Amino acid sequence: MHFTANQGIQGNTFAVTGALGFVGSALCLELVRRGALQVRAFDLRPASPWSDDLKIHGVNIIQGDITCKKDVERALRGVDCVFHLAAYGLSGKEMLQVGRIDEVNINGTCHVLDACLEHGVRRLIYMSTYNVVFGGQEIVNGNEGLPYFPIDDHVDAYSRSKSIAERLVLKTNGRPLKDGKCFHTCAIRSCAIYGPGEERHFPRIVSLAKLGLLPFRVGKPSVKTDWIYVDNLVLALVLASMGLLDDTPGKGRGPIAAGQPYYVSDGYPVNSFEFVQPLLNSLGYEWPKFYMPVSKALLLGKFFAALYTILYPWLNRWWLPHPLMLPAEIYKVGISNYFSHLKAKEELGYIPMVSSKEGMAATISYWQERKRKSLDGPTIYAWLFSVVGMSMLFSAAFLPDVGPVPFFKAISLLFFRSIQVVRMVFLVAFLLHVGESIYAWFLARKVDPANSRGWFWQTFALGYFSLRFLLRRARSQ
Prior knowledge:
By secondary structure, this protein is α/β, with parallel strands linked by helices. Helix content is 48%, strand content 12%. The chain has a seven-stranded parallel beta sheet with strand order 3-2-1-4-5-7-11, with helices on both faces. Strands 6-13 form a two-stranded parallel ribbon. It has a two-stranded parallel sheet with strand order 8-10.
């Protein structure tokens, strides 16, 4: 089925839940570009990196909680079509907050469905995930005929909740509305999303690589998974909305997409680590050379899951980093799971408009520019060497023999023979750090003024380990 460019969009009012996120904001702008009468961006956040651009283009931002029924009804009243993108628990620390995941992904979806039926919304497109059918078993070129993965066998709450929510959405398809017409729904099952500004996958990968915390790859090199560029996903969502129109040509027994799920991707399965390698290489970060079998990686993932469960009360604190990996994430990258988008092509006319090569090139350009504007620095090992080393020298030189201080003194004396020499070495090192940090501040005011204060403090802590990155930036300008 093929649709005209703006069919079902011009003159209609749309609501997008989770609209201040990476995909939601891109979708809102595309709907405006195609001539929507009004676009409502419903999100828990009052603002995001994309909110100013949305306001400039006339998008109506509505702050509200998807778990609050009144907020949802307020946002969806008078709407013709809803894109339900709001979700929680996709990756990192969020994956362990089971209560919040169910509240947002299941209860929030119920509120959206109830509001649609109450206010006569005609169309609902639900953004789902491959994980409703994938749970650690190999899937090669799968299709929509595969059964749901058993609810009780999911290793993470996000996948389980998305599976329940998708079933609710699709089962609600065809329900009669108060005006005698029908409510139509469908689901777009997405794989890992990427593109300039993506918030979930690449920032975490780049951060770990920058710190030197990507020591290995998981699974065999032959493992392949799907990725989808943001513009391709937005296209699939828009086409799905058209596929729910009652007046689509050749409808016969109703809208062609009604009650249907669709897999969408770039159509180019690839090993996830190989997919990300060009990005890390372009940023100058070390690429992991070793492979870890899935079985061993799962043991590490379960350790982090147990550790972060203990740390549950502090999961939302900024100072607690994301775990290195969790079991569900290991399955996604360590076991082949890719699907055909043939059904979406035949029924919706979906063809990826941006190739993986083009999408990665745009993403690399974005990250290179982002790196130029940010504070660069060494790996965590340099931090540990410098901070721990200076702390040990100070303790050995000036503190009384309490706690671990005698041990620090013994190590220091092994190298420097006397306390006087230890004190001299510490003072010289301290003065070098002060001088290097002052020089870094003056140099940064010329080559990176936005981060001059950061360069000062980082160089004060790390000395030349930090300064060499600033010198490299100065030489490149």
